[in-house]
Amino acid sequence: MGSISHPTQPLRIAILECDTGLPKALAKYKRYGAISSALLEAGAEAADLRTEDLDISFWDVVNEVGMFPTLEDVDGVFLTGSKHDSFADIPWTNKLVDFVKSVLAQDRVRLVGVCFGHQIIGRAMGARVGRNKDQGWEVSVTDVELTEQGREVFEGKDVLSIHQMHKDIVFDYPSGVQPLGSTSRCKVQGMFIPGRVLTVQGHPEFTQEILVEILEVRHEQGVFSDEIYEDAMARVGRKHDGVMVGKRFVEFMLDK
Q1: pLDDT < 70 stretches in the chain
Q2: Which of 51, 92, 107, 159 is buried most deeply by CB count within 10 Å?
Q3: Any bridge partners for residue 55, and if so which?
Q4: Catalytic residue among 17, 41, 138, 205, which?
């Protein structure tokens, strides 16, 4: 995945919105998927592309159950994060898993997933997903130790700094997947199949503002203890590699 020339046709990306978001973020971005489109647009700019080189559509897979893009009409599918359980046996998540399996069954449209989306893709490939009961929450800007493949994918970095907000994990790498990185709390931090799949457990699309709202709401609700909240808030303003990850997502979907 190297330098990019302008594509002759726009890169058609379907963003599957797996959540609805919190009030402050929605007031700014208008819909949950726009947080991810902002990342992709910033990534495209970092790759010397124009906004018009991306053709992004949004699909509310939570509230419009079973409504998915026709694969002939897209080049990439992006699964967002979510507050919902990736392992839930309920209609919309089951249909989402089935749709991801249909994407995996072909070899043109590429799959990208973050957090919940990463877990759904892992589930579709047969991996076990569920609560990380031993390690608990992983939140705020966190360093991910990259594998050799991870360093190749993420521009030679040894460590990827990325926002995290999860208590669920993919427990093991599915067959045929190249590991990208790990942390002490979660060993499956990213999955890669050349030309097919690229995922991260973190949230490259999150900004400090977005994460602070989530931390404050969940602290007020009692989801996060004072200790978790204070530790996360101490790290939330750290520099992170979100835009670079967005750039790599765009380059991956362009086969560059």
Answers
A1: 1-8
A2: 92
A3: 12
A4: 205
As a whole number of Å, the end-to-end CA separation of the chain is 4
205 catalytically annotated: yes
pLDDT of residue 256: 72
In tens, the pLDDT along 61-72 reads 999 999 999 999
Instruction: Choose, from 115, 118, 163, 186, the residue flagged as catalytic.
Output: 115
203 is annotated as an active-site residue: yes
pLDDT in tens, 153-166: 999 999 999 999 99
Helix-strand-coil percent breakdown of the chain, rounded to 5?
35, 25, 40
Query: In Å, what is the CA distance from 14 to each residue of 76, 91, 188, 216, 222?
Result: 6, 20, 25, 31, 35
In what order do the strands lie in the sheet containing 159-166? 159-166, 138-146, 181-182
Q: CA-based angle 251:128:122, to the nearest 5? A: 15
Q: Which of 118, 163, 166, 203 is catalytic?
A: 203
